[in-house]
Amino acid sequence: MEQYFEILEKCPLFKGVERNELSGALKCLEVKIKEYKKGETVFLQGDAVNFFGVVLEGSVQIVRNDYYGNRSIVTTAMPSQLFAETFAFAKASAVSLSAWTLADSAVMFINPEKFIGQCSRACSFHSRIISNLVKVMASKNLEINKKLEIVSKRTTRDKLMTYLFLTSQELGAKSFTVPFNRQELSDYLEVDRSGLSAEISKLKKDGKLLCRRSEFTIL
After folding, report:
1. Beta-carbon contacts of residue 134 (< 8 Å; ≥ 6 apart)
2. Cβ burial 38-50 (10 Å sphere, 16+ → b, else e)
3. Residue 99 has what pLDDT?
4. Which pLDDT band holds residue 84 (cuts at 50, 70, 90)?
5. pLDDT band at residue 114 using 50, 70 and 90 as cut-offs
6. Lower CB density within 10 Å: C or N end of the chain?
7. Which ranges in the chain belong to alpha helices (H)?
């Protein structure tokens, strides 16, 4: 477990928890760690999910597939980031998303019941972790609102530029790298890949954008 302490110190769930407290915190939460190979399923759409995860190694992509097989990327959880916490606390009997690994990964799973009620051990860090969790979930709600703002646009160009402008504002930079390849970006924006490539080419030609693979510069 100690090999993951450096990652856990970066995890927003454990903000303010000192390294010498981490062992006690993880014991209190009764965490479990599971390793996955690249492409393995963490959970599938329709499954019941009674845990939430923290990525320790690799990455976990959360996606939604519709009736026609169209895929929409919701988010990608990287090391130190949480996923599935809303489903876990809601005790969803059938989740509307799927999750699988994009690389060989290690995930720490936490039972949400450990956050409900008073800690039997009266741990000093327990209230801090609960407060951190509330902040994480609020931040996730902002991300959902961002996604809704993007996909509500009518055209591929508007969806792309809204995404790029919002990302630029968040990072405070005109040049940045997005966490998607071209297919993943089209899935995130919920647009056709060829149409997205065509719009990127037009924007480059019009002098509004520079793009090289996943690197973008807004001009």
Report:
1. none
2. eeeebbeeebebb
3. 96
4. very high
5. confident
6. C
7. 5-10, 19-29, 85-90, 126-151, 156-171, 182-189, 193-205
